[in-house]
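TL;DR need C-alpha coordinates for one chain.
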Amino acid sequence: MRMSHINFNHLYYFWQVCKAGSVVGAAEALFLTPQTITGQIKALEERLNGKLFKRQGRGLVPSELGQLVFRYADKMFMLSQEMLDIVNYRKESNLLFDVGVADALSKRLVSQVLETAVVDNEQIHLRCFESTHEMLLEQLSQHKLDMILSDCPVDSSQQEGLFSLKLGECGISFFCRQPAPDLPFPACLEQRRLLIPGRRSMLGRKLLNWFNTQGIKVEILGEFDDAALMKAFGLYHNAIFVAPTLYAQDTYSDDEVVEIGRIDSVQEEYYIIFAERMIQHPAVQRVCNKDFSALFAL
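>> reply
TL;DR here they are.
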Protein backbone atom coordinates (compact mmCIF):
# COMPACT_ATOMS: atom_id res chain seq x y z
CA MET A 1 0.00 0.00 0.00
CA ARG A 2 1.47 3.36 -1.08
CA MET A 3 2.21 5.90 1.68
CA SER A 4 0.17 9.14 1.59
CA HIS A 5 1.59 12.62 2.16
CA ILE A 6 4.15 13.24 4.92
CA ASN A 7 3.65 16.06 7.42
CA PHE A 8 6.44 18.45 6.41
CA ASN A 9 6.56 20.05 9.85
CA HIS A 10 7.53 16.66 11.29
CA LEU A 11 10.16 16.27 8.59
CA TYR A 12 11.51 19.77 9.27
CA TYR A 13 11.91 19.09 12.99
CA PHE A 14 13.70 15.82 12.19
CA TRP A 15 16.06 17.70 9.83
CA GLN A 16 16.83 20.27 12.52
CA VAL A 17 17.64 17.57 15.09
CA CYS A 18 20.04 15.92 12.61
CA LYS A 19 21.80 19.23 12.04
CA ALA A 20 21.95 20.15 15.73
CA GLY A 21 22.91 16.66 16.89
CA SER A 22 20.40 16.74 19.74
CA VAL A 23 16.75 17.40 20.51
CA VAL A 24 17.72 20.18 22.93
CA GLY A 25 19.85 21.94 20.30
CA ALA A 26 17.05 21.79 17.75
CA ALA A 27 14.51 22.99 20.32
CA GLU A 28 16.66 26.04 21.09
CA ALA A 29 17.05 26.84 17.39
CA LEU A 30 13.30 26.53 16.78
CA PHE A 31 12.21 28.19 20.06
CA LEU A 32 10.21 25.11 21.01
CA THR A 33 10.28 22.74 23.98
CA PRO A 34 12.22 19.46 23.67
CA GLN A 35 8.98 17.61 24.42
CA THR A 36 7.34 19.17 21.36
CA ILE A 37 10.25 18.13 19.12
CA THR A 38 10.25 14.59 20.53
CA GLY A 39 6.52 14.24 19.94
CA GLN A 40 6.82 15.41 16.33
CA ILE A 41 9.64 12.95 15.59
CA LYS A 42 7.70 10.07 17.14
CA ALA A 43 4.79 10.93 14.86
CA LEU A 44 7.13 10.86 11.84
CA GLU A 45 8.61 7.51 12.95
CA GLU A 46 5.11 6.06 13.17
CA ARG A 47 4.40 7.40 9.69
CA LEU A 48 7.57 5.86 8.28
CA ASN A 49 7.26 2.70 10.41
CA GLY A 50 10.83 2.82 11.71
CA LYS A 51 13.26 4.45 14.12
CA LEU A 52 15.01 7.56 12.80
CA PHE A 53 17.65 7.95 15.53
CA LYS A 54 19.89 5.87 17.74
CA ARG A 55 21.88 6.84 20.83
CA GLN A 56 25.61 7.51 20.56
CA GLY A 57 27.10 8.62 23.85
CA ARG A 58 24.98 11.52 25.05
CA GLY A 59 23.91 12.53 21.58
CA LEU A 60 21.70 11.25 18.79
CA VAL A 61 22.79 10.03 15.38
CA PRO A 62 20.52 9.06 12.48
CA SER A 63 19.75 5.38 12.07
CA GLU A 64 20.08 3.78 8.64
CA LEU A 65 16.52 4.86 7.89
CA GLY A 66 17.27 8.30 9.37
CA GLN A 67 20.29 8.76 7.10
CA LEU A 68 18.17 7.99 4.05
CA VAL A 69 15.40 10.37 5.12
CA PHE A 70 17.93 13.09 6.02
CA ARG A 71 19.53 13.02 2.55
CA TYR A 72 16.19 13.76 0.93
CA ALA A 73 15.07 16.23 3.61
CA ASP A 74 18.35 18.11 3.29
CA LYS A 75 17.87 18.56 -0.46
CA MET A 76 14.25 19.61 0.01
CA PHE A 77 14.85 22.26 2.66
CA MET A 78 18.01 23.60 1.01
CA LEU A 79 15.99 24.02 -2.19
CA SER A 80 13.26 25.84 -0.28
CA GLN A 81 15.86 28.24 1.17
CA GLU A 82 17.29 28.73 -2.30
CA MET A 83 13.81 29.60 -3.57
CA LEU A 84 13.46 32.24 -0.83
CA ASP A 85 16.85 33.68 -1.80
CA ILE A 86 15.77 33.99 -5.44
CA VAL A 87 12.41 35.53 -4.52
CA ASN A 88 14.08 37.94 -2.10
CA TYR A 89 16.57 39.48 -4.51
CA ARG A 90 14.03 39.70 -7.30
CA LYS A 91 11.86 42.07 -5.27
CA GLU A 92 11.83 45.31 -7.24
CA SER A 93 11.50 47.51 -4.15
CA ASN A 94 14.74 46.47 -2.50
CA LEU A 95 17.61 44.32 -3.75
CA LEU A 96 19.27 42.81 -0.69
CA PHE A 97 22.96 41.92 -1.01
CA ASP A 98 24.56 40.31 2.04
CA VAL A 99 28.35 40.12 1.78
CA GLY A 100 30.79 38.51 4.19
CA VAL A 101 34.28 40.02 4.42
CA ALA A 102 37.25 38.12 5.83
CA ASP A 103 38.53 40.29 8.67
CA ALA A 104 42.17 40.04 7.55
CA LEU A 105 41.63 41.80 4.21
CA SER A 106 42.55 45.39 3.38
CA LYS A 107 39.29 47.27 3.93
CA ARG A 108 40.06 49.97 1.41
CA LEU A 109 40.50 47.46 -1.40
CA VAL A 110 37.38 45.58 -0.29
CA SER A 111 35.47 48.85 -0.49
CA GLN A 112 36.58 49.40 -4.07
CA VAL A 113 35.57 45.88 -5.06
CA LEU A 114 32.12 46.38 -3.52
CA GLU A 115 31.66 49.61 -5.50
CA THR A 116 31.17 47.35 -8.53
CA ALA A 117 28.14 45.76 -6.88
CA VAL A 118 26.35 49.08 -6.38
CA VAL A 119 24.83 50.90 -9.35
CA ASP A 120 22.83 54.13 -9.34
CA ASN A 121 19.83 52.78 -11.29
CA GLU A 122 19.20 49.93 -8.85
CA GLN A 123 17.80 50.16 -5.32
CA ILE A 124 20.33 47.87 -3.69
CA HIS A 125 20.60 47.35 0.06
CA LEU A 126 24.16 46.27 0.82
CA ARG A 127 24.86 44.60 4.17
CA CYS A 128 28.45 43.69 5.11
CA PHE A 129 29.48 41.26 7.83
CA GLU A 130 33.03 40.72 9.03
CA SER A 131 34.33 37.41 10.40
CA THR A 132 36.84 34.64 9.81
CA HIS A 133 37.03 32.76 6.51
CA GLU A 134 35.72 29.58 8.14
CA MET A 135 32.75 31.26 9.83
CA LEU A 136 31.80 33.06 6.63
CA LEU A 137 31.86 29.82 4.62
CA GLU A 138 29.51 28.26 7.14
CA GLN A 139 27.12 31.22 6.85
CA LEU A 140 27.26 31.09 3.05
CA SER A 141 26.40 27.37 3.15
CA GLN A 142 23.46 28.18 5.43
CA HIS A 143 22.08 30.76 2.96
CA LYS A 144 22.84 33.63 5.34
CA LEU A 145 25.19 35.34 2.86
CA ASP A 146 25.11 35.97 -0.89
CA MET A 147 28.86 36.32 -1.41
CA ILE A 148 32.18 36.32 0.46
CA LEU A 149 35.34 38.36 -0.05
CA SER A 150 38.27 36.38 1.32
CA ASP A 151 42.03 35.89 1.13
CA CYS A 152 41.83 32.24 0.05
CA PRO A 153 39.67 30.22 -2.36
CA VAL A 154 37.21 27.47 -1.58
CA ASP A 155 37.77 23.82 -2.47
CA SER A 156 34.70 23.05 -4.59
CA SER A 157 35.33 19.32 -4.22
CA GLN A 158 34.98 19.70 -0.43
CA GLN A 159 32.32 22.44 -0.42
CA GLU A 160 29.68 21.26 -2.87
CA GLY A 161 27.84 24.08 -4.61
CA LEU A 162 30.38 26.78 -3.67
CA PHE A 163 32.71 28.43 -6.17
CA SER A 164 35.53 30.97 -5.96
CA LEU A 165 37.02 33.47 -8.40
CA LYS A 166 40.35 35.23 -7.92
CA LEU A 167 40.13 39.01 -8.29
CA GLY A 168 43.82 39.86 -7.92
CA GLU A 169 46.82 40.04 -5.62
CA CYS A 170 49.39 42.53 -4.37
CA GLY A 171 52.74 42.44 -2.59
CA ILE A 172 53.48 43.35 1.02
CA SER A 173 55.42 46.30 2.46
CA PHE A 174 57.03 46.73 5.89
CA PHE A 175 56.77 50.03 7.78
CA CYS A 176 57.97 51.56 11.03
CA ARG A 177 58.20 54.87 12.82
CA GLN A 178 61.06 57.22 11.88
CA PRO A 179 63.99 56.81 12.00
CA ALA A 180 64.39 53.55 10.03
CA PRO A 181 66.55 50.71 11.41
CA ASP A 182 70.27 50.81 10.57
CA LEU A 183 70.55 47.48 8.75
CA PRO A 184 69.33 46.98 5.16
CA PHE A 185 66.11 45.09 4.41
CA PRO A 186 65.32 42.30 5.31
CA ALA A 187 68.02 42.05 8.01
CA CYS A 188 66.53 45.13 9.67
CA LEU A 189 63.44 43.08 10.59
CA GLU A 190 65.51 41.57 13.40
CA GLN A 191 66.21 44.99 14.93
CA ARG A 192 62.68 45.74 16.11
CA ARG A 193 59.69 43.73 17.24
CA LEU A 194 57.19 42.88 14.53
CA LEU A 195 53.42 43.06 14.05
CA ILE A 196 51.81 40.75 11.48
CA PRO A 197 48.31 39.65 10.41
CA GLY A 198 46.94 36.78 12.49
CA ARG A 199 48.40 33.41 11.62
CA ARG A 200 44.91 32.03 11.08
CA SER A 201 44.84 34.27 7.97
CA MET A 202 46.49 33.16 4.74
CA LEU A 203 48.77 36.22 4.69
CA GLY A 204 49.91 35.65 8.27
CA ARG A 205 50.89 32.07 7.49
CA LYS A 206 52.70 33.12 4.31
CA LEU A 207 54.76 35.71 6.20
CA LEU A 208 55.78 33.23 8.88
CA ASN A 209 56.89 30.81 6.18
CA TRP A 210 58.83 33.59 4.41
CA PHE A 211 60.72 34.47 7.61
CA ASN A 212 61.72 30.82 7.95
CA THR A 213 62.89 30.47 4.35
CA GLN A 214 64.92 33.70 4.62
CA GLY A 215 66.49 32.55 7.88
CA ILE A 216 65.27 35.71 9.63
CA LYS A 217 64.79 35.43 13.39
CA VAL A 218 62.02 37.93 14.11
CA GLU A 219 60.42 38.74 17.44
CA ILE A 220 56.66 38.95 16.93
CA LEU A 221 55.08 41.40 19.34
CA GLY A 222 51.51 40.85 18.18
CA GLU A 223 49.08 39.67 15.53
CA PHE A 224 46.36 41.97 14.21
CA ASP A 225 43.59 41.62 11.64
CA ASP A 226 42.76 45.34 11.63
CA ALA A 227 45.34 47.38 9.68
CA ALA A 228 44.56 50.67 11.43
CA LEU A 229 44.95 49.10 14.87
CA MET A 230 48.19 47.44 13.77
CA LYS A 231 49.60 50.79 12.63
CA ALA A 232 48.57 52.60 15.85
CA PHE A 233 50.00 49.85 18.03
CA GLY A 234 53.17 49.71 15.95
CA LEU A 235 53.80 53.44 16.26
CA TYR A 236 53.20 53.43 20.00
CA HIS A 237 55.56 50.50 20.60
CA ASN A 238 58.09 51.47 17.89
CA ALA A 239 57.47 48.14 16.13
CA ILE A 240 57.59 47.15 12.46
CA PHE A 241 54.22 46.45 10.84
CA VAL A 242 52.97 45.33 7.43
CA ALA A 243 50.38 46.43 4.87
CA PRO A 244 49.63 45.82 1.18
CA THR A 245 52.13 47.65 -1.02
CA LEU A 246 49.22 48.80 -3.16
CA TYR A 247 48.28 51.43 -0.60
CA ALA A 248 51.69 52.25 0.83
CA GLN A 249 51.69 55.82 -0.43
CA ASP A 250 48.11 56.61 0.54
CA THR A 251 47.82 54.87 3.90
CA TYR A 252 51.28 55.54 5.32
CA SER A 253 52.21 58.85 3.72
CA ASP A 254 52.64 60.87 6.92
CA ASP A 255 56.13 61.99 7.94
CA GLU A 256 56.09 59.82 11.05
CA VAL A 257 56.11 56.54 9.06
CA VAL A 258 58.73 55.17 6.66
CA GLU A 259 58.57 52.16 4.34
CA ILE A 260 61.63 50.00 5.01
CA GLY A 261 61.09 47.26 2.43
CA ARG A 262 58.66 45.36 0.27
CA ILE A 263 58.35 41.80 -1.00
CA ASP A 264 56.50 40.45 -4.03
CA SER A 265 57.09 36.78 -3.23
CA VAL A 266 54.42 37.05 -0.51
CA GLN A 267 51.10 38.25 -1.89
CA GLU A 268 47.81 39.20 -0.29
CA GLU A 269 45.22 37.52 -2.50
CA TYR A 270 41.60 38.49 -3.01
CA TYR A 271 38.84 36.03 -3.91
CA ILE A 272 35.08 36.16 -4.16
CA ILE A 273 33.23 33.04 -3.06
CA PHE A 274 29.60 32.44 -3.93
CA ALA A 275 27.05 29.65 -4.00
CA GLU A 276 25.78 28.23 -7.26
CA ARG A 277 22.30 29.47 -6.43
CA MET A 278 23.53 33.09 -6.35
CA ILE A 279 25.09 33.18 -9.85
CA GLN A 280 21.95 34.95 -11.11
CA HIS A 281 22.10 37.65 -8.42
CA PRO A 282 22.74 40.91 -10.34
CA ALA A 283 25.34 42.19 -7.85
CA VAL A 284 27.25 38.88 -7.85
CA GLN A 285 27.20 38.91 -11.66
CA ARG A 286 28.67 42.41 -11.78
CA VAL A 287 31.55 41.49 -9.48
CA CYS A 288 32.22 38.25 -11.38
CA ASN A 289 32.27 39.99 -14.75
CA LYS A 290 34.43 42.95 -13.69
CA ASP A 291 38.11 43.06 -14.67
CA PHE A 292 39.95 44.22 -11.54
CA SER A 293 43.47 44.11 -13.02
CA ALA A 294 43.76 47.93 -12.99
CA LEU A 295 42.80 47.99 -9.31
CA PHE A 296 45.73 45.75 -8.40
CA ALA A 297 48.27 47.45 -10.68
CA LEU A 298 51.00 49.43 -8.89
